[in-house]
Structures are given as structure tokens and as C-alpha cells.
Amino acid sequence: MEDQSQSSDSRKCSAVTGSGRKLKDNAADWHNLILRWEKLNDEGSGVAEKIVNQRLKLSPGEGATPPPSAAPPSCSQLEQECTKLLGVVSKMAAIVTRMERLASSQRGVLELEGFQWGAAGRGAPLFHGWPTRLFVELSQGLLESYQKELALKQRVVQELAHTGPLDVCMVYLSCWLYQPYIPADSRLTLEALLLETGHRAL
Questions:
Q1: Residues 6 or more apart in contact with residue 21 via CB below 8 angstroms
Q2: Whether the Cβ atoms of residue 140 and residue 104 lie closer than 8 Å to each other
Q3: Which residues, 6 or more positions from 89, have their beta carbon under 8 angstroms from its beta carbon?
Q4: Does some domain include residue 87?
């Protein structure tokens, strides 16, 4: 009997249509966009580290003395790495734009339900138990985190190669790596979203 109930739940989540299908597709898109963001963050961390190391070699008086055999990088090499980092941030900005569309889509589903069902909302949840409003709130929270993080990264890419003391560069490097505006529980939020919409097995 329990197996029948589980298979019924699976069918409910896999065969959804209308608003349910939209929310389920959006959950998959959130997952894919966040994975792409994390990959870009790792790529950008490597580039940012190269920029700081090249600045150390160009200004050895500010940091550790490079070995005699190490040829100092040229300013053009530094500029190339800065261009790479700018490219990474541009891709991150495109991801945030898509996140904005997802959040807007979630709000559209909620507004449609308000039109169809009135202020009381839908009588039964679309999936396991979440009201549609919760999808909207969680999506908005994720969006705001990534918007703030993007603004920080845009500042980092502007300042990293040109800022004064190298200890400030190290702070910027740490900011890029640790992403202070993305809460530690954002991964749990994403997993909960995937569980609720049937992308993960309960």
C-alpha cells in the first residue's frame, strides 16, 4: 500500500501541467543556473588569483620577493587576465538576468492563482505541501542574494588590478572566493525546491 502511495506521488510530480509544470521547470532552471554560477565563480577565482600574483611580481616591494629566475609579467599580461575576469562577470550578469526572469515567472503564477482562486488561493498544493507563495518568496530570496553578489563581483573586477595596497587586493580575492552575499543555507533552499517539485526523491 505504501509503494502505491509513493508511486502515486511520483506520478503527481512527473505529470504536472499548467502552473505546476511552470514551477517544476523553474526549479530545474534555478538548479542549472546556480551550477553554472558556481563553475564561473571557480573560474573567476583562478583568474583573480593570477591577477594578484602578477601584481605581486610587478611590485615586489609590496609583497614577497619573486625568485630571480621568474620573469616579471608585462602590463599587457595583467590586462589580459583582467579582460578574462571581466568576461566571467559578464556571464554571471547574464545568469542573474535569467534569475530575474524566473522570479518574475513565479510571481506570474501566483498572480494567476489569485485571479482564478481569489484571496484564499488554491485549495490544494500543486506538489507535496508548499503553497505557491512559498515558491515566490524563496525565489525572490535567491535572486536578491545573487544580485548583491554580482554587484560585489563587478566592484572586484573594477578594483582588483588598480587598487592601491596589495593587502586590499587580498581582501577582494577572499570576497570573490567566499561569496559573502550568498547565504550558507541557499544550497538547502535549492534542494528543498527540488524535493518539493519532484526532481529529488523524498
A1: none
A2: no
A3: 44, 150, 153, 154, 157
A4: yes
Task: Please give the tally of structural domains in the chain.
Answer: 1
What is the tens place of the pLDDT at every residue in 35-66?
A: 999 999 999 999 999 998 888 877 655 544 44
Which residue type sits at 66? P
Residue 14 located in a structural domain: no
Task: Confirm whether 9 is domain-assigned.
Answer: no
Question: pTM of the full predicted structure?
Answer: 0.81
Report if residue 66 sits inside a domain. no
Centre a 10 Å sphere on the Cβ of residue 2 and count the other Cβ atoms it contains. Answer: 6
Mind listing the pLDDT tens digit for each residue in 113-144? 877 766 666 666 677 788 988 999 999 999 99
Helices 186-196 and 132-159 sit at what angle, rounded to 10 degrees? 140
